[in-house]
UniProtKB/TrEMBL annotation:
Protein's UniProt name: Reverse transcriptase
Annotated organism of origin: Spirobacillus cienkowskii
Membership in a protein family: Belongs to the bacterial reverse transcriptase family.
Domain of life: Bacteria
Keyword match Signal: no
MF GO annotations: RNA-directed DNA polymerase activity
Keywords from the named record: Nucleotidyltransferase, RNA-directed DNA polymerase, Transferase
Length: 173
């Protein structure tokens, strides 16, 4: 029809819209939003120089492997039979100290899968967060938080100050 504008939404955009409009809605199945296209996009975003996981496969080798086996990888997730491989434990030095802290390095394929799943979940969670929440959110940094705080301080009379400190997280033994 002339004059009508139609917007084509992806499935995940519809999920975000539902999350925004139906606050009490419980999502029961989201794995079908993890697609070959999205996993491949996340895989290509991983830097070539990234450390490999326990499998020793580089990013480029992982891309080749994914192109050959993408159907079985995605099907295993959709059938809920995907098992994340073990992570490679690495100890990195703490700045200015002799002690080292452990980190787990997942395989490159698992990083791409985790990134895709995180994006799907983020579409839902982002709808619940307030604009004044900055921690760990896409396009929201500590600098954004400080700018917002500065704007509030300059615009209004401040009667109180809240100080926060980030506590060190301990790794389980």
């Amino acid at each position: 029809m002339k004059g009508n504008i139609f917007f084509v939404e992806t499935g995940i955009e519809r999920v975000a819209l539902k999350a925004r409009n139906e606050k009490n809605l419980q999502f029961t199945s989201l794995i079908h939003h993890v697609t070959v296209k999205e996993v491949f996009r996340n895989l290509k975003q991983i830097p070539k120089s990234s450390s490999s996981g326990v499998d020793g496969i580089s990013r480029d080798e992982c891309i080749d492997e994914f192109l050959k086996n993408h159907k079985s990888i995605i099907n295993s997730m959709h059938k809920m039979s995907y098992k994340a491989p073990p992570v490679r434990r690495v100890y990195i030095p703490k700045p200015g100290k002799t002690e080292k802290r452990p980190i787990g390095v997942p395989t490159i394929m698992d990083r791409a899968i985790q990134g895709t799943i995180a994006e799907v979940l983020s579409k839902i969670y982002e709808e619940d967060f307030l604009n004044c929440s900055f921690g760990g959110r896409p396009n929201k940094s500590a600098h954004n938080a400080l700018c917002t705080l500065q704007n509030y301080i300059l615009a209004k009379k401040i009667n109180w100050v809240f100080e926060a400190a980030r506590l060190q997280r301990r790794e389980p033994p």
